[in-house]
Predict the 3D structure of the following.
Amino acid sequence: MAKSSLDIRPKDKPEGKKILIFAVLFVVLIGASWLVSRNKGASAGKIDFDLYVMSQCPYGTEAEALVLEVMDSFEDDVNFNVEYIATVNPDGTISSLHGAPEVEGNIYQLCVKNSHPDKFWDYIECQNKNMSDLSGSFESCANEVGVDYSTIKSCADGDEGKDLLTASATKATELQVSGSPTFYIDGEKLNLGARSEVALKRAICDATDREPKACGDIPEDKEFTAYILRDSRCTTDMCGTEQLEEQLNGTFSKISYKELDYNTDEGREFYDEYGLTLLPAVLFTKDVEGTDNYAQIQRYLVESNDLYSLAIGASYNPSREEESGRLDLFVMSLCPYGTKAMDVMEEVLANFGDSMDFNLNFIANENEDGTFDALHGQPEVDENIRELCAAEYYPNSYMDYVWCRNDNLNDDWTKCAGNFSAIRGCFQGSTGKNLHSKNIELANELGIGASPTWMVNNKYSFRGIDAETVRANFCKFNDAPGCENTLTGQAAAPSGGAPAGGSCN
């Protein structure tokens, strides 16, 4: 199973909001940013700590649970408060990302905070045991924590509750808070990076000069080095690392960098020593294991000699010679995402004509005894071979066979072979197996295991299964006839109900 690109800090956000992700990108991946303010000037009284959430957001409830873990340590120093992210509409109604049940949940929780502030966090803790059905615990949680249910119900059912949520949502809107969770301390922002108890305690201690007692027990974060290898010849966005470094800095307080260029002897030696194939590459020293936030990224790390390689969705291959006008597609012939990618090539090839050199490559493995393994079993191996036989004997029309087969891969393949009579002998003899053996070498050499994967000009990889995505990425590196056109955008779902987008790997 291939490692996915990294996005370690989730946050619920309304549609249309951009989320900064680790993949370059990469990703990955829903993204998150925890914001804490810093007010070093305060010297008396408690600091105000505001947590902005949506009551049915799982990341928001995780943040509330984290705050509950640290509250007792800072009860003399911090006022912990919760506000709610929602939209107050022009007609006075209120909407929220998770719908009307969330609006109602926000209101009930605010009514408890307003009338029983000493019971508020207990009520939150009770409700979050089943945050997907808040209405089912409005009364039971009130009884459990000692809140008068009739009081909060009257508040929630009347104008009082609506006014409380309007005021809370307005605070979020004025601060331009849209992601759940978001932290504030006295209005100034600090990127906390991760949701660990140690990280949150350290951020609270950094936010004040009063030095709460709990601050003396917090260890310093572990230092480690990140090696970043780039290729100075690649100046496109796919080779940039600015956003990646910004997120790394927000996640690790003691990270330092060693930057390398593939176009130097040191850079190429590093590339070869650690078995890299795509750039940019990010590798960590193993001291990262001792950092506060190691658990947040652990599943995105692959051990490589004495370092860890971070999966960031890199797509530039510096060691391959560029071949202008070339487009390679790597697929599994029975993968619904792969077949959809092959199908959109009908529109792509019609648009570019002879200005595009298209090559179809299959993803499989060859065993020592000459047999093959494929994700979807022997039927996929057989179909790979038949399609390669079609390409070998009918280079100008083989995609017609492929598109015919993709219409119904469960049907008898010979129904599509009427104009491709050479397929049978090729498939049944040694020729087809030899074609398959040679064809799958490229995917294995490049470490490509996800169907579909595209590569432009023998060098630049990308993902997608719609014609416009293919056109746009091909034209990033080729000024070819057809680049001026706009093709069909996001593809419909592949047959069998698989969603548009995704891959088999």
